[in-house]
């Protein structure tokens, strides 16, 4: 079976999390599916647990039929099963639904919530929690927000809508505005357009700006308001509007740090800090506005976050 022809999971999500798909290799010496699974899942899943799952009918084929221990190994076949979920800290806030129709769901994602299930953030991801909240099992993100960043996140309702809406972001057709709280630097003339070359090396958490390289990241930086003595040291803070023209990893956080105005509460910039998972001092960055022409019917779409940044003491610009 060709890779693109593999059917969707026959198992419904559990706690908003999809079953895992195991695609068999092209060839191998295994006679039975069980033998391959034991070898493949070791050492994380012991052989007795594989046997238990098979006895319980937890591995299924594309039709949803449970597979037994004596099921033959079939090259390139696919089987599905739900894996044990990691222990997670329960996020105190749910995503808030801003909009819902037959094609998309738009939510206001809280700070410190991953977009997709990953690592330590699975059931508590925005995708899993929104699936449970809405009852829509096939939701999928059209784009992503960094885990520390709050704000407007769009998801598609069904597979057939995923491509058109993802292309809005891939082709740079979405207008995005962010709000951030950061120090005020009197010598910094604003507004300005920050154009730099960003690189994020594999295995590192921080992105970095490379001098004398062609720009691949561009952001309009505007200072909307200042609040003298607003931070804990009595220094002046500013409320900034950031309008990215590109979407590189950590673009806003890295570029503001490069300007000498790192975002308040950032655990990575300018210096990476070992911050335990918590929700008391979030990154003061908000995906505030998302606007685009609908790729299906051409309707102008505009979604605005209802959240505000806790470190900002002044008037809030979003109604």
From TrEMBL:
Residues 104-257 form the Pseudouridine synthase RsuA/RluA-like domain. Signal peptide: none annotated. It catalyses: a uridine in RNA = a pseudouridine in RNA. It holds the Pfam family PseudoU_synth_2. Gene3D superfamilies: Pseudouridine synthase. It comes from the Bacteria. InterPro entries: PsdUridine_synth_cat_dom_sf (IPR020103), PsdUridine_synth_RluA-like_CS (IPR006224), PsdUridine_synth_RsuA/RluA (IPR006145), RluA_PseudoU_synthase (IPR050188). This is RNA pseudouridylate synthase. The lineage of its organism: Bacteria, Bacillati, Actinomycetota, Actinomycetes, Micrococcales.
């Amino acid at each position: 079976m060709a890779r693109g022809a593999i059917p969707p999971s026959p198992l419904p999500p559990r706690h908003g999390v999809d079953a895992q798909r195991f695609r068999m290799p092209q060839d191998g010496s295994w006679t039975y599916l069980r033998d391959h699974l034991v070898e493949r899942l070791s050492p994380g899943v012991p052989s007795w647990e594989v046997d238990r799952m098979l006895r319980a009918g937890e591995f299924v084929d594309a039709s949803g039929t449970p597979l037994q221990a004596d099921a033959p190994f079939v090259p390139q076949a696919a089987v599905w099963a739900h894996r044990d979920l990691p222990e997670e800290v329960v996020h105190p806030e749910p995503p808030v639904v801003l909009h819902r129709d037959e094609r998309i769901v738009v939510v206001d994602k809280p700070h410190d919530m991953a977009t997709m299930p990953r690592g330590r953030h699975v059931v508590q991801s925005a995708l899993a929690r929104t699936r449970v909240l809405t009852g829509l099992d096939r939701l999928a993100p059209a784009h992503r927000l960094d885990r520390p960043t709050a704000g407007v996140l769009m998801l598609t309702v069904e597979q057939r809508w995923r491509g058109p809406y993802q292309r809005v972001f891939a082709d740079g057709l979405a207008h995005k505005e962010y709000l951030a709280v950061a120090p005020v630097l009197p010598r910094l003339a604003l507004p300005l357009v920050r154009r730099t070359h960003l690189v994020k090396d594999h295995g590192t958490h921080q992105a970095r700006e490379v001098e004398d390289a062609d720009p691949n990241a561009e952001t309009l930086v505007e200072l909307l308001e200042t609040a003298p003595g607003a931070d804990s040291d009595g220094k002046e803070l500013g409320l900034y509007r950031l309008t990215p023209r590109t979407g590189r990893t950590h673009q806003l956080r890295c570029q503001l740090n490069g300007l000498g105005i790192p975002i308040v509460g950032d655990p990575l910039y300018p210096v990476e800090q070992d911050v335990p998972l918590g929700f008391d001092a979030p990154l003061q960055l908000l995906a505030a506005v998302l606007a685009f022409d609908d790729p299906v019917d051409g309707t102008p779409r505009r979604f605005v976050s209802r959240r505000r940044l806790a470190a900002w003491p002044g008037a809030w610009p979003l109604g």
